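User: Last request for today: this protein with guanosine-5'-diphosphate, please.
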Amino acid sequence: MMPYDEETTEDYIFKIVLTGDSAVGKSNLLSRYARDEFHASSKTTIGVEFQTQSVIIDGKRIKAQIWDTAGQERFKAVTSAYYRGAVGALVVYDISRRQSFDDIGRWLEELRVHSDMSVVAMLVGNKCDLEHLREVSQEEGRSLAESEGMYFMETSALDSTNVHKAFQTVVTEIYNVVSRKVL
Ligand code: GDP
Ligand code: MG
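Assistant: Here's the final one, the structure of the complex with guanosine-5'-diphosphate:
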């Protein structure tokens, strides 16, 4: 019998991008999801990074390739390459920082310019553990997401609330879109 080769047995590879202002917690959401790690201090890395996570849906092997801006949010040169081929996006703000929510429109505009109409997008209000510092209500988040046709979830990379669920929902919905297209 041939040895099992993980590289060649994926049924799908989904590219998913993280966007949103600096310091909203994008890197920590990813490290919490992929490695169950949280980092109290921001470490800025040069260039774009991604992590992969294997998921099984409907018996299909899916590799979620999740891209993180790695501190390059303001550098437009990386933008097209970053979004190219993305089928999912988590657009993140910090519920304790109003400005990061006000900037969401800009991130959505960029997403729409650079990616396909059918991209599965979720609005993510991160740091929901900081209830005492909340500046954006859950209702505001939900209603913006509804008006933009996006999924919505509040998360905490610190205490893990909804982190797995947010990524899992996006991956599952991409799978639903893709498998409908194939049929
Ligand atoms: P990025 O610039 O969007 O990638 O943000 P980071 O993941 O680097 O996080 C920025 C800062 O916010 C760091 O100091 C993190 O420890 C902190 N942080 C990230 N997620 C959370 C969270 O869910 N709750 C709290 N309280 N702090 C968080
Ligand atoms: Mg980061």
